[in-house]
Structures are given as structure tokens and as C-alpha cells.
Amino acid sequence: MPEVWFFLVAFMVAMYFVLDGFDLGAAMVRPFVARTDEERARVFAAIGPYWDGNEVWLVAAGGTSLCVFPAAFASVLGGLYIPFFMVLWGLLVRGISIEFRHLSHDALWVSFWDFTFVVSGALLSLLFGVAVGNLLRGFPLGDDGAFELDLFSGSRPAALDLYTLLVGVAVTLAFALQGAAFLAWKTDGDLGERSARLRKWLTVAVAIAFVATVFATHRVRPELGAAFLGRPVGWLFVAASLAGMGLAFRSARPLLGFLGSSLVILGSAVSLAVAAFPVLVFAAARPEVSIVASGETGGLRIALSWWVLGMALVAGYYVTVFRIHRGKTPRVPQEAQDQVVGDGTT
Amino acid sequence: MADALFWHRVQFAFTIIYHYLFPQLTMGLALLLVAMKGLALYRKDPLWADLARFWTRIFGINFVVGVVTGLPMEFQFGTNWGRFSQVTGAVIGHTLGMEGVFAFFLESALVGLLVFGDKKLGPRAHLLVAALLCLGTWMSGYFIICANAFMQHPVAYAMEASGRMRLTSFVELMANPWALAAYAHNMMASVVTASFVVCSVSALWVLRARHLPHARKALKLGLAAGLVSCVLVAFPTGDTQAKLVARYQPVALAAMEGRFESGPQAEISVIGQPNVPEKRLDNPIRIPGALSFLAYGTFHSDVKGLDAFPKEEWPTNIEVLYYAFHVMAGLGTLFIGLMGLGNLLRWRGLLERPRARPLLWLLLFAFPFPYIATTAGWMTAELGRQPWLVFGVMRTADGSSLRVHAGSVLFTLFGFLGLYLVMGLLFVVLILREVGRGPSAHGENKPAPHDDVEVAHA
Fold it and tell me: Is B421 exposed, middle or buried (CB count within 10 Å of its CB: 0-12, 13-18, 19+)?
């Protein structure tokens, strides 16, 4: 049962990366693809119906981890204390940027939230990647299952160092790709075309960054690669990720491009989980104190029953929301914005 | 170490008190929105439809702030309360996990449709969206109260040799008697908050003689819901809760009342200052026998005072606990009076007479007080639980993260103070702006350009 949960939690995190990845990515690519006020507003309109639900994957993954792997939950969050609060603050700023921006059409108001939206999106993407890098490299775990880690340090491994920043950049690029692919799918006109072009180039960048990450990871934790090679099922997910890159690079159909880009993230995340299994929190210096997936079967089985029911409902919500908002995002009428400004001041 | 514990507690208290200012309105207003939309649909009344649209905009802004301030709560269990998470995670994790999976996904899917989907969905589907969203927010409330109830009155667990808890019965965890009582009490209190907010805005409109047809209707709903919920908060829900405290946390009850000596015919002190070093209540005004009645249903029952308990089991901050309880109970009593009077005047058709203006002013300025009362209520529950993190099982001092020092916690606390200050100011500005626009800004007679923009956003 703990083995099953290892992959279910990995799945939830991967889904968070796939889904919120396109919101964060849309924020990052927005300066490159949206040039007019209307296009900028349309980027927000495109992710508007989805971002909140996408963010719930992180909350749900957190609550579920607390339930099934409490020791790992406490260890990682306590050890990465300050970086984690940066993530929470970034999410806070991102959320209000999206939801406050359209409440007024004052030019200063809008440009302020445009700025915070882009910056928080980039910062969050980088930090999520840094978190992945930290998990891959491992922590100076003590016998009590806790650890302390400097935020940055000249010589020793730290939460932010060359390796984790490299993974951070790779994930940032992958999210940017996901955002471009989403906008290429859900918007049309110049905005959609620029996004489709950017998607192509970002695919190349992601491929390079991923290769660099694989080599760097092999240096900081060689046994991870060895474990992976012994697990052929993981190769399937690598193949899926590669196929996704192919689609994201080549496909002329925007939906396929988006699915391809999603497959890149999902496939890579699951292959990493396969490689790391069953270690949840790797103790870099003393592998024997690593926190591995374990737990009392009765409770895990109960959790599985509500989780399966919940996920079935979630699938239903996603189908419903995507159906209601099917097709391209409608243009945001300029004249309507002007009238509202007048309306607001009366 | 003691330092760090203090700041862990301050940060959690600050972030959760601030957070809960928003969900209480979300949950209460969700119910009132369903009522407004239902009335609009079945009475075919465009005024109710306008009101529903207006309050949906307020709901939307409030909901967002509730979401973003809620995010840190669950994760602070790991960042700041690591040992607590390790010990209890396998039990309370079920409620927190289910909250995400069942409540948050539902809410997030629906809130966009509620705020922007008016035109797209049609009135019937839109009413259904509002009803389901209300269900989602109320479910969310239950899961959280369940987690808290476990800390107040732990059930359905067994301690393993590793020192970690294991869940023994899912049903028992979810049907914790403490959770049922606290939930009913808490949800009625959120309807009180929403009713007062609706009354306040409507009273403003009446006082300024603007949007009068809308204001009259909203005031009628707000006053009616306010009276019913104010009564229900006190009885039976508050009463049941008090009896549970008397039964399971008698030491907390004694501290709440500033009762230092045990004895029969226990009195309630309406006012007075707890003097903990001298172990007495200064300058008390008391109602004899009332505490015995509140706790056990008879006027002569014995009620234990703090002297019946060893000092290390006393709540750590008796003074604040005492005031928190009295502020909550006192305000709750005043609310019933205010809402009773308001309904009486409205029923007699006197509300808009010049002589009734003081009451409208009262309603206008009353809206902060339910927030104060709910905050005080939660402080009563949480301070009464001290020095325990899980009552009788785990002490607060044993629950914090081991390796996070005071300097780190202060750093993040300052971050929250700054962010929440800015966000709170923005929130107030945005709400005042909507209130200033009023319900008819997007009504029938005007074209509604803003709505089109918002549909595009949706």
C-alpha cells in the first residue's frame, strides 16, 4: 500500500506541474507573445477559469502527503522552511494578480498586476524547479528525520546552488513551454501564432536543459541513474516525454502541441519518481536514514478509498469546465473597457 | 527553543485569524446568495437578481482573498509544526486531504462559473452552481472543524510504538461529537457574519436614500437570517458546545469563567477582571447558578474551579481566554437584541421613519462585531485547549518543528504582516468601490458592458 501511495502522490505533484504549469508558463511567456492591451487581457481570460482549480492540486497533494507520508511532509517543509514560504507568498501574489486585475481598468492598476503576475509566475516556476532539484540531490537528514539547509552558500550544497538552480531553469523552461502551448491552443490571431512559434523554440530549449539536468543529476547522485536503468517501466515514461517533445516541436495542431507539452512534464516527473522509488526524502550523506514510503496499511487503504472517489469527481469537474469554455478564448472588447472606466467613476 | 515556540504560535495565530476573516463571510454569504438567486428565479423578481449579482461580486473578491490566505495554513503544519504533523498526520491528514479533494476542487470549478457565468448558464443552472458552491464551502468548513475537533477531543486513534498515531475508525473520526457541535455553532456564526454585512450595506443605502427598492429587500433578508442565526448560535449550538467543554475540558471552562474555586451553584460573571496571581476575579458582577445551568442543566450542580486541577494543566493564558469567551458571549447576546429590534421595526414598517435612523446607523457600524465575536470564539477554543496541542495527549511545546529557529519564524511572520497589510487595504478599497457602485449599476435599465468583459474573462 505505501508503494501505491508513493506513485499516487507523485502523480498529484506531476498533475500540479502539468496544470498549474500552464498558468505559470502563460505568465512567463506573456511579455513575449502579448503585445497589445487586448492581448494581455486575453492571456488572463484564457487561464481565468482554470488557475484556481489547478492550484488546488498542490493543496490536495499537500493534504494527502500529510495523511499518507507525515514524516516526509514534516521533514521537507521544515527543512526548506524559507524557500517554502517564498512559494506560498508567490502563490498569494499570483492569485490576487489574476483576480484583482480585471476589477478596474485603470491603466496603472492593470500594469501593476501585469507586472506582479509575470514576476510571481517566473519566481514560482524557478522555486518549484529548485524544490525538485533539492529532492533529487537529497538533504543532510539527521536521525530525527529533520534537517537544516542554508538558503545559499558559497561552498556547501544549499537550497539554492548551481545544481538546484539548473533544475530550476529546466523546470522554468518546461513551464514556459507549457504556457506557450496552452496559449497556442486556447487563443487565436497574432497571440495564438506567436505562442505557437514560441512553443517550438521552447521545446528545443527544454530538450537542452533536460539533457544538462540528467548529466548534472548523474554527478550529484549517481545511484539514481543506476536505479533507473534497472527499471524498464521507467523507460516508457521517458519515451512518452520524448514523444511529447516531438509533438510540441512539430505538430501543426495546437491541441496536440499542448498535449505533447503536457506529456513532457508528466513523463519526466513520473520517470523521476520511478528512479527515486521508494525513497521520499533522500539523506545524502547517510542513505540509511532516508525516509522511504511506508505506513500503516489500514489508514492508507481508507485514504485510497476517498482519494479514488475524489479523483473521479475531479475528472468530472475538469471535463465540465473545459467543455463550458471550449474553443478559443473570445477577444476582450476594448470599447467595453472604456465604458467601464466611465461607469466606475460615476 | 522556547523563543521559537512562541513565534511559531504567534505566526499561526496571526495567519489563521486573518485567514478566517474571509471564509466566514464566504460560507455565510454563499447561503444568502442561494436564497437571493432562488427568490429571483421563483418570484421572477429582477430586484433579487440585481442583489444576487451585487453580492456575487462581493463574494468573488472575498473568496479570492480567502483562497490565497488559506494556502499557507495547511503547509504550516509541516513548516512550523513538524512534530505535530509526524505524530498526528496519519489521522488528521484524512480530513485535510479530503478537504482538498472534495471541497476545494468543487469550489474552484464553480466559483468562476458563479462570478462570470451569469449570462452563459441561464438562471436555473446558475442557481445550481450557487447551491453546489455553497455545499463546497460548507463541506470545507466541516473538514477543517473535524481536524480541529481531533485536537480538542481526540478520538479514533491508537498510539503506535513509534510514537505516531494510527487511525482506528474513519467513521468515528468524522462523527466526532465535538466536530458536530462545533460545526453547527461555527456555521451559524458565519451566517451571522454574512447577515450583518448584508444589513450594514443595505442600511448604508437606506441612510443615503440610494437603491431603496434593493436595500429594502436585502435588509429584510439580512435581518431575518440575522435573527435566526443569532438565536441558533446561542441555542442550541453554543449551549451544546459549552456542555461539551464542561464535560471534556472542565479546566478550560473554569479558566473561561475565571473560576478559581470549585463549588455548587456556580455563577457566571458578566464582567470582572481575572486576577490570576491572587486567584480571584476582581470587581465581578455575577449571575448565581447560571454556570451550573449552562454546563450541566441544573442551577445547583458542582462546577470545578481551577483549584481542582494541577497548575501545569491550566490554560497558559487565562486572562486572554477569559476575555475572549466573555467578548464572544457578550456580543452574541447583544446581537440577538439588535436583530430582534431590527426585525420588529421592519415588521411594523417603521425602519425608514426618521426616528429609526439610529438603528440604521447601528446596523451600518455593527458589521465588524461578528468578526470580532467569531475571532474571540476561536480564541476561546484554542486558548482553552492549551497547554495541549492535542488535548490530553500532546503538549504544544512538543509539536513545533525541531530545527526551525526563532529568527526564521520571525522572518516569515514579518513577510506575512507586510503582505497581509497590503492585501487587506486593497480588499477594503475594492469592496468599498463595489458598495459605492451599488446593485443597479449593472441592472436592467442600463446596458451592462462590464458583464461582457467579465464573460470574456471567464
Answer: exposed
